[in-house]
Amino acid sequence: MQGLEMSEYVNHPPGCRRKYNVVANQTERKLRLLLVSFGVLCLIQAALNLSLRLTLNSSEESSNSVCNKTSLSEPSQGREEQGDCGRDRPAQCNRLQERFNALTRDRDELRDKNNKLMNALNAVQEERDRLKARLKGYLEKTFTPKYLTMKTF
């Protein structure tokens, strides 16, 4: 029985097992700290994205809603703001019309380019079909067995 007990015995210096556990605990702590830090970083990034998106949308709404503001405290001030809107609207309409015209022009150019490419594609396909027919005729003439071309008397 003592022979079995001796084969299972491993001679470790005292405290070796404890040092291993301490090292493992330290690496686990570092890994946890790294993961928690990354999670916090992701949360901060999400909050920043959200706040920037809200800021962008609110600044667009505020610039577009200037014409819709009316002042209840001073009616004359509201009229002045409406006058400013009257001056701003033609400029906005002109910008929109320019953008519309540019988009229409781009669309027409793209249609023309597409039509030219489609015509070129059709021409290439027709040329391919002609060449296939010529090749087929050439192969039939060249590789037809002689006994089929001889006339029998």
Structural description of this entry:
It is built from four helices and no strands. The protein is flat and about 100 Å long. The protein is an all-alpha fold.
Give a short summary of the structure.
The protein has 153 residues and is mainly alpha-helical.
Helix fraction, binned, reads over 70%
Global shape: flat
Mean of pLDDT: 77
Distance between the ends: 111 Å
Radius of gyration using CA atoms only = 42 Å
| Count of DSSP strands | 0
Strand content: under 5%
Which secondary-structure class do the elements indicate? mainly alpha
Low-confidence stretches: none
Largest sheet: none
Strand/helix succession: HHHH
How many helical stretches? 4
Layout of SSEs?
Layout: H1 2-8, H2 16-64, H3 75-142, H4 146-149
Notable features of this structure?
153 residues, mainly alpha, 0% strand
